[in-house]
Design a protein that fits this description.
213 residues; mainly alpha; three-stranded antiparallel β-sheet; 3 strands; elongated
Length: 213
């Protein structure tokens, strides 16, 4: 699963309608250009592709009085919302997602209700435990990686990563159970996007031809 689809759909959905540079600006505000493939070219390409796929509706906006080409504003469709929620739920549940996909899902988890997020994260812990159980049928972490020669370091790395992932997920579950964050249906959520014209302290400043579209 690619993080870019989830990130772009979620960013557009949070705005209601947004042009490409707004989406890019939001994702840079999240630092997504550092931990995912959300680079300018990928963002603008994803917007155009998902518009063709019916996940986004493209509104052409008249050019400004100062001149320049018309900009396109994107709005998520019903099909796009379904895709977004499917990607979000799958990313929170799966134990083997890439870090960028899980990171994207964490950014949008409050779009779901609290109880559903808890259920999805509990599923993730169970999946990690099942995976670990399958691996340790032929690899015993307590005996150290040397039992399999230097190749054992591969299993050692993955078992330790699984343990860390499960521990972190359990901690998140406890924080959410304890009332952390505002989820869907609970009131006004934390605003994680920039308003039009708001300065982005984390912007890269890198210019891209798609910025004017």
């Amino acid at each position: 699963m690619s993080a870019i689809r989830l990130l772009v759909l979620g960013a557009v959905r949070q705005h209601g309608r947004a042009h490409g540079y707004q989406v890019r600006n939001d994702l840079e505000y999240w630092g997504a250009h550092e931990w995912s493939n959300a680079k300018p070219g990928s963002i603008y390409h994803a917007l155009k592709q998902m518009a063709k796929q019916g996940l986004l509706y493209a509104h052409e906006i008249a050019p400004s009085t100062a001149g320049g080409p018309p900009r396109t504003e994107y709005e998520i469709t019903e099909k796009g919302t379904e895709e977004f929620l499917t990607l979000l739920r799958g990313s929170l549940t799966a134990y083997d997602q890439r870090p960028d996909v899980l990171s994207a899902a964490l950014g949008f988890m409050v779009d779901l209700d609290r109880e559903e997020v808890l259920e999805l994260l509990e599923e993730r812990v169970l999946a990690i435990e099942e995976w670990r159980k399958a691996v340790t049928e032929y690899y015993t972490p307590e005996d150290g990686p040397e039992q399999l020669g230097h190749i054992g370091e591969i299993m050692n790395f993955w078992v330790h990563s699984a343990d860390a992932g499960a521990g972190w997920t359990r901690g998140l579950i406890e924080r959410i159970r304890g009332g952390a964050y505002t989820f869907a249906g609970e009131g006004e959520a934390f605003v994680g996007v920039l308003t039009e014209g708001q300065e982005n302290p984390y912007a890269t400043g890198e210019r891209h031809p798609g910025d004017a579209c």
